[in-house]
Specification:
Keywords: Endoplasmic reticulum, Hydrolase, Manganese, Metal-binding, Purine metabolism, Signal
InterPro entries: Amidase_Cbmase, ArgE/DapE_CS, Bact_exopeptidase_dim_dom, Peptidase_M20, Peptidase_M20_dimer
EC number: 3.5.3.9
Largest sheet: 9 strands, mixed
Number of domains: 2
Subcellular location: Endoplasmic reticulum
Strand content: 15-25%
Mean pLDDT: 89
Signal peptide: 1-26
Helix content: 25-40%
CATH class of the largest domain: Alpha Beta
CATH superfamily of the largest domain: Zn peptidases
CATH architecture of the largest domain: 3-Layer(aba) Sandwich
Number of helices: 14
Length: 482
């Protein structure tokens, strides 16, 4: 069934159930001016969890460093404006707010027991270049909206434990090619040397922080790490960034795990020369070499069983895992001096390799690296392979996942009545802040359906009612939190 057809059916079905509830309760939830009366809305909180949340997502989507497209990287001018916007929303929900020395924005309520272990809810406010408006932002806005609903109905201060919403400053790693700068600092997985990492303009993270009045030393940087004993768990709401939920016709899904990922930077150096005077047989062309290396990567990742050798003990499980989850991407390539009439002297490209099986992913990287060096030797060019990022696969906590599944059921029952279909459980091929936070505490994730599975694109889209469902699910999770 097409996405628009599903959306129309869901909308009609919801309206039928909505008006049936009105008749069965014998009273209208609308006030005289046509707006929703929250005190009579059966806790659906339409204005906050749907209408206001949608408006806020679009408002945040306009906070950009780019003209005509969305780009918001680590501590850029737009990122600092986004902090101001989100902070006002947090304060609107009656949360205490602050910005830490890594640019993460926090909003916290102590609840009924300030000394209890805290629930952390978060996602990232940075974006890729030419991004969609839902990636990262949906998790932040949904959490704030749910807490605002609790504030309005007088339940915020009655929460069993403290709840803290965190808008992480960097997850995508666009500016410094180092992901999880925000959540990694809080989880304590970043070394203090991270402060000396520089971007393409040779500006360091430490300098950027200082420019934004966020003075940080190596000692204070390490102190950003939360004490694991003070944290109960971490929950993240995120768009699926894939087509599964749309395919099964369900707005929400529970994540059971996140694929491990490795980012590599490959530099191929050859002999720069004139495009018209150097015979083909005498060339040491890094561009041609890089092309062969990229095609090798694609072939290996499509057919790992034809390239890799395994011992008898793990061959079957590893091969099956790689066949179902291995994905490899070259997303960036640059040449020097990059002129049409010059044989390049250097070509640099990135490789992004992901798989659910960490051992299998390591085997892929080892075998691919070995073959890269062999090809470079054959072509008389030099190759350097740098590891820019490594993150192991993460399995979500079964208890949190069970509670999120119950919360998703509750949300959809509130919206549509009795639900017979089981909430889907799926794996994530994309990395999320939950990967970093898993080093600090147990984690759980809730996916939200997105049209066509499209993400990292202006075409990224989530239905208004699916945003509503996500907000209701977080609200239900908070209300029933252990």
């Amino acid at each position: 069934m097409a996405y628009s057809t599903i959306a129309t059916f869901n909308k009609c079905f919801f309206l039928f159930c909505f008006f049936f509830c009105l008749l069965s309760h014998g009273s209208s939830i609308f006030s005289g001016n046509g707006t929703v009366d929250l005190e009579k809305s059966d806790d659906l909180f339409t204005q906050i969890l749907r209408d206001e949340a949608v408006a806020r997502l679009y408002e945040l989507g306009k906070v950009s460093d780019g003209s005509g497209y969305l780009e918001r990287t680590f501590l850029s001018p737009a990122s600092m404006r986004a902090i101001d916007v989100i902070r006002k929303w947090m304060e609107d929900a009656n949360l205490g707010t602050w910005v830490d020395q890594m640019g993460n924005l926090h909003g916290r309520v102590d609840g009924a027991n300030a000394s209890a272990e805290a629930l952390l809810i978060g996602s990232h406010m940075d974006t890729v270049v030419d991004a969609g408006i839902f990636d990262g932002s949906l998790g932040i806005v949904s959490a704030i909206s749910a807490l605002k609903a609790l504030h309005i109905n007088g339940k915020l201060q009655k929460l069993r434990r403290p709840v803290e919403v965190i808008a992480f400053s960097d997850e995508e790693g666009v500016r410094f090619q180092t992901t999880f700068l925000g959540s990694g600092a809080i989880a304590g997985i970043l070394p203090s040397t991270t402060l000396r990492v520089s971007d393409k303009r040779d500006v360091t993270i430490e300098s950027v922080l200082k420019e934004n009045s966020l003075e940080v030393t190596e000692e204070s940087f390490l102190q950003l790490k939360y004490d694991s004993k003070s944290v109960w768990g971490y929950v993240e709401v995120h768009i699926e960034q894939g087509p599964v939920l749309e395919q099964v016709g369900f707005p929400l899904g529970v994540v059971k795990g996140i694929a491990g990922q490795t980012r590599l930077k490959v530099t191929v150096r050859g002999s720069q020369g004139h495009a018209g005077t150097v015979p083909m047989s005498m060339r040491q062309d890094p561009m041609a070499a890089a092309a062969e290396l990229i095609v090798l990567m694609e072939s290996l990742c499509k057919n790992p069983e034809k390239y890799l050798s395994y011992d008898d003990q793990c061959s079957d499980s590893t091969v099956k895992s790689l066949l179902s989850s291995l994905v490899c991407t070259v997303g960036e390539i640059s040449t020097w001096p990059s002129a049409s009439n010059v044989i390049p002297g250097q070509v640099t490209y990135t490789m992004d390799i992901r798989a659910i099986d960490d051992l299998g992913r390591e085997d892929v990287i080892y075998d691919l690296s070995k073959r890269i060096y062999q090809i470079c030797d054959k072509r008389s060019v030099s190759c350097i392979i740098e590891h820019k990022h490594d993150a192991g696969a993460v399995i979500c906590d079964s208890e949190l996942s069970s509670q999120l599944k119950s919360a998703a059921y509750s949300a959809l029952r509130r919206m549509e009545g009795d639900i017979q279909v089981e909430v889907p459980t799926l794996m994530s091929g994309a990395g999320h802040d939950a990967m970093a936070m898993s080093h600090l505490t147990k984690v759980g994730m809730l996916f939200v359906r997105c049209r066509g599975g499209i993400s990292h694109s202006p075409q990224e889209h989530v239905l208004d009612n699916d945003i509503w469902a996500a907000g209701l699910a977080i609200l239900s999770f908070l209300e029933n939190m252990q």
